[in-house]
Structure formats: structure tokens, C-alpha cells
Amino acid sequence: MAGAGPRFTGPISCGMAKPRILTGDTPTGRLHLGHWVGSVENRVRLQEQYDCFFLLANMHAYTTRADKPAEIRRDTLEIVKDWLACGIDPEKSTIVLQTEVPAIAELTWFFAMLIPFNRVMRNPTLKTEIETKDLGDSYSFGFPMYAVGQCADILAFRPELVPVGEDQVAHIEMCREVARRFDQVYCAVDPQTEDSDYPARGGVFPIPRALVGRVGRLIGTDGRNKMSKSLGNAIFLSDDAKTIKKKVGQIFTGRQSLTEPGDTRNALFDYVRIFIKDEARVKELERRYAAGDNIGDGHVKAEVAEAIDALTAPMRARRAEFEKPGGDEAVIEIIRAGTARANAVAEETLYMAKEKMGLGFGRRVVR
Ligand code: ATP
Ligand code: MG
After folding, report:
1. Are residues 297 and 332 in the same domain?
2. Cα 170 to ligand 2 centre (Å)
3. Predicted TM-score (pTM) of this structure
4. Could you give the CA distance from residue 256 to residue 235 in angstroms, rounded to a whole number?
5. For the chain, which terminal residue's Cβ has fewer other Cβ atoms within 10 angstroms, N or C?
6. How would you classify the pairing of strands 363-365 and 7-9?
7. Does 184 share its domain with 163?
8. Low-confidence stretches of the chain (pLDDT beneath 70)
9. 157 and 71, same structural domain?
């Protein structure tokens, strides 16, 4: 049938004017404060200097929630609304839907052949997720595969930087190993080459670096685990003032092995240091709390809730624009436009990789 299936033409090139960034989020819920301090704050800041690609990792949401497609679809749109609320500007940055970028799925296969199975299963972030998300031993085959898929998410865009929270550093390390291996095996790059020189020595892939945010691992309101969409311990960027107050009120400050009454090494004081902007006030709260100076958890929590509300109120206001009728359609249009642009880049990467792999049979155009 005319127009159906891939078309092939000659190679086209796409210059790299600005260095690229790739990062993203899995649509398993809305964005929370951990996303902001761990990664999104950096993304907003770096939009001007870098050509940014922000990926909606919806395929990865299916690895643990394959039976909940309606929720994944809803969360995909919610995450874009959160990004826009945070200040990600689709005029400057490219919003990408993973499942509409076929090159990512294809690169995942090729990369899966370059990394030993046991190496994937030793990834500490995967191990922690299996434990904290209670996945037991019956998780899907696709679950560990997402770690390989993430190498493809990143490398499809040949970025320099990947702004992420601390839990993702192990994934980025794996991605760096895969990139080196590909370049050594298929592009004859000498294994002694410095990471920064791989493209100059003929490698298809740069060796991207993780950029961890100002707080690499924000603890959740349970005072124990990383704040996570999936663990019920998150304060969402879209939570209203009342909900923020309630959730901050639940922050666990029970004295764990390390802490004594007045000890500020607890989750609540992490929040004080992270979200209260006024340094002098932070010092004052620490001093009075440590001295038992007529200041308890309740008072500190009220100030923390106020600081969080001050940070997120403007985000909620921007988000409200997309919660009006027609908001979902506007978001879908942003996703479509971004994904079309992303496909041009990812297809070029796949073309370059296939050429080096002995699979160069002409250039395909995905429209
Ligand atoms: P899930 O529970 O589904 O794994 P999540 O809350 O861990 O969701 P992700 O989509 O996996 O969120 O992570 C998106 C980005 O946000 C990653 O770069 C991750 O490192 C960062 N991030 C997530 N949670 C935190 C946190 N608590 N502190 C700092 N960074 C975080
Ligand atoms: Mg996660």
C-alpha cells in the first residue's frame, strides 16, 4: 500500500548546534518534590544552554503496571502538565513520548546484546526497586529490561548530560558502559580512550555524564524511603496548601537509632534545610530545636509547609491553565510536535549505529 511502512532515502545530516540533554520521568503518577530537587530544577535552569529532550517513559510504566493502561495514559498527560507547571517551555525544549520513537525500541535490542544479563541484574537500583516496590520474584521479564531500555532512551539522543536523582546514577553508569562497548566493538575506538574523546575517535555515542540535582535523594514523608510516586510517601507539586500541610504533618520524626530528642538529623530537618530559603531562619530553627528551646515538631512543620507552598503555588497556577477544558488536547499537541522532532534525531542515531553494525541498507524515514 502506497505510503505505508518505512521509506528509504539517502543519508541526511543534522548538525549539533548546542550540546544535548536527555532525561525523563516514568508516568507512574504525578511529579513530587523529589523530582523537583533531584532533576527538574536543573532541567528548567539548563533549557537555554542545552538542546533539551525530556522523555515520557511510558513504556517503562508498563513494566510494573501493564494491566493499567488507562492510568498510564492519564499519568502521561499529568506529567507533561507538571513539567509545564515547573517552567519547562516546549518552545525551547522537546517533549518526547517514548512509545512513538521506534528507534529507542530497536536500540534496546542491540544494546541488550552488549551487556551481560548478570550485569543488569546486579544493578543496585533495580535491586532496591524490586524490594521497595514489593515486586517479589514474579516481576515481568520487561522489568529488568527497562534498565537496558533506558540506555537506549539516553543514547538515542547522543546527549552530553543526563540530569537525574541519585538513584539513577547506577543506570547512567550502565549506559556509559554500553556506549563505550558499542564504540569499541563497532567503531574501533581504542579502549584506552578518555570518555570525553569517544566521538572524536569515531564513536557513534558520546559517554554521557549524570548531573545530580541539589538534593540527590529526597526522603519521603515516611522518613525512611526515597520519596517516590509509587510508595505513598510523596508530596506532589500539584498538592494544594491544605494537603501539603497535612502531609508535612505526617513526616516521620520518630527517633531512629542515630537520633536523640533535639537531634536535627531527621527527615523534618532535611526538609527545613532544603525548602526554607532564609539561611538565618534555618540556623535559628536548628539551634532552638537542638536546645529544646520551646519549639517542637508542630511549629517546625508549619514553617516547612509554608515554604513548600511558596515554592509550588506558582506551579499550581501555571498548571491550572492546562486543567481547563481543552487542556488535554493542548498537551497532546505538544507531545506530538516534540515527538516528531525527537524522531528526526533518534532516527539519525539509529542510522549511524546500524551503518557501523553492518546493517546499513539505506536510510529509513519514520514520519
Ligand atoms: P517510581 O516510584 O515509579 O520509580 P519515582 O518517584 O522514582 O517513580 P522516576 O520517574 O523513577 O520517579 O524518576 C524520575 C527522576 O526523578 C529521576 O531522575 C529520579 O532520579 C528523580 N527522583 C525521583 N525521586 C527522587 C527523590 N526522592 N529525590 C531525588 N530525585 C528523585
Ligand atoms: Mg523511580
Report:
1. no
2. 12
3. 0.91
4. 22
5. N
6. antiparallel
7. yes
8. 1-16, 254-262, 366-367
9. yes
- The residue behind cell 519549639 is 295
Same domain, 36 and 68: yes
* Grid cell at residue 200: 572524536
Q: Are residues 52 and 160 in the same domain?
A: yes
User: What pLDDT, on the 0 to 100 scale, is given for residue 98?
Assistant: 98
| Residue from 23, 68, 167 whose mutation best tests the ligand 1 pocket (most atoms within 8 A of CB) | 167
Buried b / exposed e across 321-349, counting CB within 10 Å, b at 16+? ebeeeebeebbeebbeebbeebbebbbbb
State the closest ligand 1 atom to the C-alpha of 26, by its place in the atom list counted from 1. Answer: 10
Ligand 1 pocket list (CB less than 6 A): 25-26, 28, 34-35, 37-39, 164-165, 167-168, 215-218, 226-230
Q: Whose CA is nearest to atom 13 of ligand 1?
A: 25
Q: Which atom of ligand 1 is nearest to the CA of 230?
A: 2
Residue nearest (by alpha carbon) to ligand 1 atom 26: 34
Both 273 and 331 in one domain: the answer is no
Give the number of the atom of ligand 1 that is nearest the alpha carbon of residue 215: 29
Rounded to the nearest angstrom, the distance between the alpha carbon of 179 and the centre of ligand 2 is 22
The confidence score (pLDDT) of residue 11 equals: 32
State which residues form the domain around 49: 20-217+325-356
Number of domains in the chain: 2
pLDDT at 290: 85
